Amino acid sequence: xxxxxxxxxxxxxxxxxxxxxxxxxxxxxxxxxxxxxxxxxxxxxxxxxxxxxxxxxxxxxxxxxxxxxxxxxxxxxxxxxxxxxxxxxxxxxxxxxxxxxxxxxxxxxxxxxxxxxxxxxxxxxxxxxxxxxxxxxxxxxxxxxxxxxxxxxxxxxxxxxxxxxxxxxxxxxxxxxxxxxxxxxxxxxxxxxxxxxxxxxxxxxxxxxxxxxxxxxxxxxxxxxxxxxxxxxxxxxxxxxxxxxxxxxxxxxxxxxxxxxxxxxxxxxxxxxxxxxxxxxxxxxxxxxxxxxxxxxxxxxxxxxxxxxxxxxxxxxxxxxxxxxxxxxxxxxxxxxxxxxxxxxxxxxxxxxxxxxxxxxxxxxxxxxxxxxxxxxxxxxxxxxxxxxxxxxxxxxxxxxxxxxxxxxxxxxxxxxxxxxxxxxxxxxxxxxxxxxxxxxxxxxxxxxxxxxxxxxxxxxxxxxxxxxxxxxxxxxxxxxxxxx
Length: 485
Fold this sequence. Notes:
Elements: H1 3-47, H2 52-68, H3 81-92, E1 104-109, E2 128-133, E3 139-142, E4 145-149, E5 153-158, E6 165-172, H4 174-183, H5 187-210, E7 218-223, H6 232-244, H7 248-253, H8 273-287, H9 293-309, H10 321-332, E8 348-353, E9 370-375, E10 381-384, E11 387-391, E12 395-400, E13 407-414, H11 416-425, H12 429-449, E14 459-464, H13 473-484
Parallel strand pairs: 1-6, 1-7, 8-13, 8-14
Antiparallel strand pairs: 2-5, 3-4, 5-6, 9-12, 10-11, 12-13
């Protein structure tokens, strides 16, 4: 055999290997570059309040914490966390030593998941025990839903030898649970999950300490589930002892914001060329991959609400929307004009406005033709994220025909996350500029999610331009009902 033919054989053997190594290296390098690009883009968007974590913070702060933490000016309507803890002490005959900290302890886990009962969390080490819910819970009309309740749960925290315990209000952030649920179906989101959770925690701390009505009313506890030695009970116990070292007034005012701590949201002019030709395109690029502001709203609303109230789970506490509507019609048939024909749409009618705002009572959009009627019965009752027996309410509205002679009924409400977008946009010019585009992205992504088997044909989205005075919401709802029928 000649040297030339031997060289050719060796070359033929090595060439495929070399090509494989070259292609693998190319794709590996390209993947690493893309990962760095996504990370850079994501951090850029978070810096101006357009990222996934920013959306979760806005949802949780404007949709929950601002309701349960401060005592409103109209204190007869509801009580803040401090007043409710004091009332609980009195009801349960507890001393300040028994229940020393008048704050909400918020658990943030590195996975985003927290069990329904935090006493059964692996990292509680059998030293955390659920007591009961705080009384005087806020009950509000919100986003079209009548008498929505905001529950919080008290837990006992034991010391190491279980000879003593203190009580605290403890729960996990529900929006992080929905992040975790969505990340299981989105590999890119899963890759960013821990980064999102840490950004959420940092941003929320800053907002809570900037907003006067919520200062010193919430303690964020981060649990690294990768640390097998971590003990949640120890962490809470140490923080309680830190607060006990202060005087009683210090418990409420003990945190002093460091001079370098500011809200991480950067200001940017949404009308300049940099925003229009760079930031906005970057936003859409990440939004289409599930990392944008609208994606977080959809994940939170779908996994945190619609997946709970729409499908029938086959239990007394988890009856589906169609079954509940049918039971409602059966119960009301003899005492009102509610009949099968008068309740033509057996779905949840989700109102999405161009501004994102939905009033407490949807009849405010058409007072002469839309009236609040009653809540659906058999509301889902679920223990979730550390809160015992959280209720999920939905409201039935009466819609009158144009001549006001005929009445029709439907389950109608607004998406709470859009109300929070509306509130956040007041403080962020970038959100205000992109609000309508974000809302349209929300509608698009949500329609895709609603195609899943257990939610298909159970929710209908109604888009309403609340700036157009020529459009009557009652007409839009009746059109949607007749089309569905």
